[in-house]
Structure prediction request, 366 residues.
Amino acid sequence: MSCAANRSKGGVTGVKYSLLLASPLALLAGVVSIPVLLANGDPPPFVACAPDAASIETILATIRRLESGDNYQATNPGASASGAYQFIDSTWANYGGYARALMAPPEVQDAKAAEMVGAILDRHNDVAAVPVVWYVGHLPASSSAEWDTVPAPEAGNRLTPRQYQQRWMDKYSELGGAASPTSGPPASIPSSCFGGEPGEILAGDWALPGPRSMIDATVNQLDDPHHDYPAWDWIIPTGTLIYAVRAGTVATVSAWPHNWWEQGCTTRGVNGCAPCGIGLTIVDDLGTRWTYCHGSNLHVTRGSRVEAGTLILTSGNTGRSGTPHLHLEIRTAAGIQHCPQTLVASLYRDGVGLDPRSLSTTGCSF
Prediction:
C-alpha cells in the first residue's frame, strides 16, 4: 500500500478539528482496495476474533470517539463526511450497497473501518502509524518537517501530525489499547470468541469438520477434487462453524482478513498477501498437520490445545479464494500431503476415522 501525500483542498474545506479524518480517508480511497462483496451482497464481516482483534476494536473505538462521539448517524455540515468514522462519500464509495456511511448499520461501518485500519497495520506494523496516516494520508519520514507542520490550516486544522498523534494515542491508551497490536503473541482474542457448542464428536476422538446438516446439503462435494494438489475445498456459506477434525496443538495462525484477488495479489502474492487468509494449522500427536483456511473469524490462539470437535474457525472468503469455502489440507509428519476426501466421507457416512497415513496421495486433484 502506498499513501500519496497530495491533499485535496476541496475535500477538507470547512472540516473542524473533531472531523479531521475526512480528508485522509479520501486520500486512502485510492490506495486501499475496497473489500470484495460476498455472493449474498454483504460486505466481509469484521474480523472480531482474529489475533489482535481486541486491539483493533480499541483502535476503531478511538477513531469513533474522536470523530463522532460514537454516533453512527453523525453528519458534517462542512463536508460529505458522515457516520461514526466520518467517511466522506467518495471514500465510502457505496460500500455494502449504501450510498452514505450514515445509512449503513454499525456493523457495516465497522467493517469498512476495520479494512482500512488493517491495511495501515499491514504496511507499518505499528498502531502509532494509524492516527498519522488517517490524518495526513501517509507516514512521513522520521526526519521530515511535515511532522511539525499543521496540514491544511485553511480547513480549520490546528494540530501538527505529531500533536495529533499524541492526542490520539492518549485516547487509545485511555480506552485500553496496548502499545502495538501487531507484536507479541496473539493473546488478545476477546473471551467471547472462545467456547461455543462443540461439533459432532465421533468415536476414537474424531469429529466432523462442520455441522452435519451442512454436509447433508453438500454431500455431492465429498469426492470433489482440489484444483492442483491433495486437499479438499468445501464450498459453504460464509459463517459456517468449522470444528477440529482431530485434537492437537495450534501451531500457526493466519489472520489476513482480505480476499487475495480483490487486494491485487498476483499468482505468487505481493505486499504480504496470505493465501490462507484467516486460518490455522493444528499438529496432532502423530505430527500430522491439519490446515484450515479462508475463514472469516478465528476462535483459537496459537499454542492452544484443542480437542476434536472444538470450534476453531468460522468459514469465509479470505486469502486466495474465489468463493466462500473451507480449505482442508492434511500433511503427515513425513511432509506428504494426503487426500482428505475419503476421511471426511468415512466420518460422515460411517462415523469412523482413518489413519491419515493410509489416505491416498493421488487422485484428488486436477
Q: What stands out?
A: The first strand starts at residue 201 and ends at 202. The chain has a mean pLDDT of 79. The chain has two domains: 9-174, 194-358.
